[in-house]
Automatic annotation (TrEMBL):
Species in which this protein is naturally found: Larkinella insperata
Family, per entry: Belongs to the GTP cyclohydrolase I type 2/NIF3 family.
Keywords tagged on the record: Metal-binding
Keyword Metal-binding (UniProt): yes
Domain of life: Bacteria
Name this polypeptide is given: GTP cyclohydrolase 1 type 2 homolog
Keyword Metal-binding: yes
Pfam families (alphabetical): DUF34_NIF3 (PF01784)
């Protein structure tokens, strides 16, 4: 098993296309073709984590946070980022990050928080738009020629295999309508129906399917391979529809309502917290909870719009707490604390995919923030 095979599985789960523009997810250091001896999972990559990987014979570190966000112009060891990269290269340890792309998928970072809190009916809090496309194509039917028996289903099966037709909890979704197509091939053509240079008509099925935009090349390759025509007619349309499987944060319901004090105690216990910063209590029961790993303040209005009683996130600044304005309780549990269980999320996924080598959780606490209690 080489590094490329591992990262391909990670990117099928959390596509790099879903990372934010400022991010640097993916393979940061290392040879994709190198064989994997073991994988170390961490939230952050530090020099101590690289040392740990070497001790444990892990030549691939998978982290949530990228060690490199901006371009490195020199590698002289003048700061911790350069030192980590140098140490990784010297020890042939590859560095990979699944960051905002893992934040932005159903089942990702915020869903792990929801799981820790025992939330039910969990959904993405702020679904993304403009990440879906619609494909329309035309396939000849048996009514026009017995040779095309099953052609429509064969094309659809190939497209489904390429990832089209997924809508929420349903897959293999499509629409079809019958009609008549017309065409004429030139002298260099080799038409599947009729003769070159002649006007032709064909009884066809119009097929419509949706897919995630980043799959476009794969989908079109599958279409061309499966379609019986020499030249395949198709349309692609970018959709503004929200994708319920891609977006920021999550929202769900507690099994039963808790008082605000009970919820804060519950939150502290479930997330293993030392301290919680929060806005004024409202004297109302807590049942619906919105969550976002890391700095989630940008989702406050989405949390309010989802009728959440509490918003669990991190990295709130002083003046931003005022934005609660009595509409919701903001709880800031700390950046590290909100995302540390992401390590378990990544490990669980990789263990399901690879059982022949070690996938180990780092023992090192990389939280740069300490509390004097």
């Amino acid at each position: 098993m080489n590094i490329k095979e591992v990262t391909s599985h990670l990117e099928a789960w959390a596509p790099l296309a879903y990372q934010e523009s400022y991010d640097n997810a993916g393979l940061i250091v290392g040879d994709p073709g190198a064989s994997v001896t073991g994988i170390l999972i961490t939230l952050d990559i530090t020099e101590a984590v690289v040392d740990e990987a070497v001790r444990k014979n892990c030549n691939l570190i998978v982290a949530h946070h990228p060690i490199v966000f901006r371009g490195l112009k020199k590698l002289t060891g003048r700061n911790y980022v350069e030192r980590v990269v140098i140490k990784a290269i010297k020890n042939d340890v590859a560095l990979y990050a699944a960051h905002t792309n893992l934040d932005n998928i159903a089942g990702g970072v915020s869903f792990k928080i929801a799981e820790k809190l025992g939330l039910a009916n969990v959904q993405i809090l702020a679904p993304k738009s403009d990440v879906l496309m619609k494909l329309v194509t035309f396939v000849p039917t048996v009514q026009g020629n017995p040779a095309f028996r099953g052609a429509t289903q064969a094309v659809l099966d190939a497209l489904y295999e390429a990832g089209v037709g997924q809508i929420g909890k349903y897959d293999r979704c499509s629409f079809r309508a019958e009609g008549t197509g017309t065409f004429r091939g030139n002298a260099e053509s080799n038409p599947t129906l009729g003769e070159a240079g002649e006007d032709e008509e064909a009884h066809e099925n119009r097929i419509e399917v949706i897919f995630q935009a980043h799959r476009q090349k794969t989908v079109l390759a599958a279409l061309r391979k499966a379609h019986p025509y020499e030249e395949v007619a198709y349309y692609l349309t970018t959709l503004v529809n929200e994708n319920q499987e891609v977006g920021s944060g999550a929202v769900g319901d507690l099994p039963e309502a808790l008082s605000e004090a009970e919820f804060l105690a519950y939150l502290k216990n479930r997330m293993n917290l030392s301290v919680i910063r929060h806005t004024a209590l409202r004297g109302q029961p807590v049942r619906r909870v919105a969550v976002c790993g890391g700095a989630g303040g940008f989702l406050l209005n989405d949390a309010v719009g989802a009728r959440a009683d509490v918003f669990v996130t991190a990295d709130y600044k002083y003046h931003e707490f005022f934005d609660a304005d009595g509409r919701i309780i903001i709880t800031d549990i700390g950046h590290y604390e909100s995302e540390v269980f992401t390590k378990e999320l990544i490990q669980q996924y990789l263990l399901e995919k690879f059982i022949t080598f070690a996938v180990i959780l780092s023992d090192i606490d990389t939280n740069p923030v300490l509390y004097y209690l």
